[in-house]
């Protein structure tokens, strides 16, 4: 748990610092990537330390206690906000590529609405236990608190079903749908004449989409075991794992705060270059081979070239 806290804090802190640099700010998905890092950083700073301190002192979480309520709420709202942000990110990627216009970018106001909507969605999803519709109780592993998955009350059971559907299965379906449509667009849109810069830009798009897919897969794989075990407990009316076994899916879910920075470093060359510059104290951007893929270029050609050959030279939209 301490390693999750350590790597989660520094990984997401450096992610925010990197994404604030000029070469990243103009990207359509950068605000959403930053929102993911902020959500992960919030749970690392405001959620995990209190729980770790309580466990180290040998104290048990108590149903109805302030720490239990806070633990369940902050864990839930950041988790729901993250999957909401991932859903919005998949939609933004699809919309950007569908436009197929190098001058198109998602308006700042739209990104702000998406980010605020994700946080509002998370808040509304975790509000019912605070007002008596279900409650926050210690998990079977005792590491933190969560909604009462084993409740036999009909009203509370309805809330659990809505929470799992709206906080996991529906976003999962939407993400899968957007990514499938994005994949079809990338295969359908040709690159006329396949000039070097256009080919480079297309490869950059494909790498970006793969990075986003990896981010979403990591999040879903982290939370799927916990979600499945919890929902199974709701169906059966009791926990299906022992306290020792229950630690595995719970720790997998908590470790989700670590994966995104690692994925960015491995799969995003520009992110990696910026991070290295920050670490060594060199703030001067270095032009790299994929730099050409991040800007709009004018390709010089004879005035009647496209008309005579019935060809249209276009570039693809910037993610």
UniProtKB/TrEMBL annotation:
Report the transmembrane regions from the record.
6-21, 33-52, 72-92, 112-131, 158-179, 209-231, 251-267
Which compartments does it reside in? Membrane
Q: Which GO terms describe its molecular function?
A: G protein-coupled receptor activity
- Which Pfam family, just one, is annotated for this protein? 7tm_1
Q: Which PROSITE patterns match?
A: G_PROTEIN_RECEP_F1_2
- Residues annotated as domain G-protein coupled receptors family 1 profile: 11-264
Q: How does it sit in the membrane?
A: Multi-pass membrane protein
Q: Which CDD domains match?
A: 7tmA_Opsins_type2_animals
Question: InterPro entries per the record?
Answer: GPCR_opsins, GPCR_Rhodpsn, GPCR_Rhodpsn_7TM
| Example of a GO cellular component annotation carried by this entry | membrane
User: Chief subcellular site?
Assistant: membrane
UniProtKB keywords? G-protein coupled receptor, Membrane, Receptor, Transducer, Transmembrane, Transmembrane helix
What highest taxon heads this organism's lineage? Eukaryota
Name-wise, this protein is G-protein coupled receptors family 1 profile domain-containing protein
Source species, please? Pocillopora damicornis
**Which lineage do the record's taxonomy fields give for this organism?**
Eukaryota, Metazoa, Cnidaria, Anthozoa, Hexacorallia
């Amino acid at each position: 748990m301490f390693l999750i806290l350590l790597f989660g804090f520094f990984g997401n802190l450096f992610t925010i610092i990197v994404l604030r640099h000029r070469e990243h700010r103009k990207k359509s998905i950068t605000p959403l990537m930053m929102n993911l890092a902020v959500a992960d950083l919030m749970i690392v700073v405001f959620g995990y330390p209190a729980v770790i301190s309580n466990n180290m002192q040998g104290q048990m979480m108590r149903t109805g206690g302030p720490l239990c309520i806070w633990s369940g709420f902050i864990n839930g709202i950041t988790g729901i906000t993250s999957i909401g942000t991932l859903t919005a990110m998949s939609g933004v990627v699809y919309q950007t590529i569908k436009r197929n216009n190098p001058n198109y970018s998602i308006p700042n106001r739209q990104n702000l609405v998406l980010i605020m909507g994700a946080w509002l969605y998370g808040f509304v999803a975790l509000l019912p236990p605070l007002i008596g519709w279900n409650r926050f109780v210690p998990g079977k592993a005792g590491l933190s608190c969560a909604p009462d998955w084993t409740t036999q009350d009909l009203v509370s059971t309805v809330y659990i079903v809505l929470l799992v559907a709206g906080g996991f299965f529906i976003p999962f379906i939407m993400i899968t749908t957007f990514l499938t449509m994005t994949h079809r667009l990338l295969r359908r849109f040709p690159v006329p004449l396949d000039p070097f810069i256009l080919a480079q830009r297309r490869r950059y798009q494909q790498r970006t989409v793969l990075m986003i897919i990896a981010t979403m897969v990591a999040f879903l794989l982290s939370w799927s075991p916990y979600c499945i075990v919890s929902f199974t407990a709701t169906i059966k009316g009791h926990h299906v794992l022992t306290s020792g076994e229950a630690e595995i899916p719970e720790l997998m879910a908590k470790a989700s705060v670590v994966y995104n920075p690692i994925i960015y470093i491995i799969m995003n060359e520009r992110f990696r270059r910026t991070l290295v510059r920050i670490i060594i104290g060199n703030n001067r951007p270095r032009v790299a081979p994929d730099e050409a893929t991040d800007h709009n270029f004018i390709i010089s050609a004879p005035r009647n070239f496209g008309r005579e050959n019935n060809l249209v030279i276009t570039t693809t939209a910037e993610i």
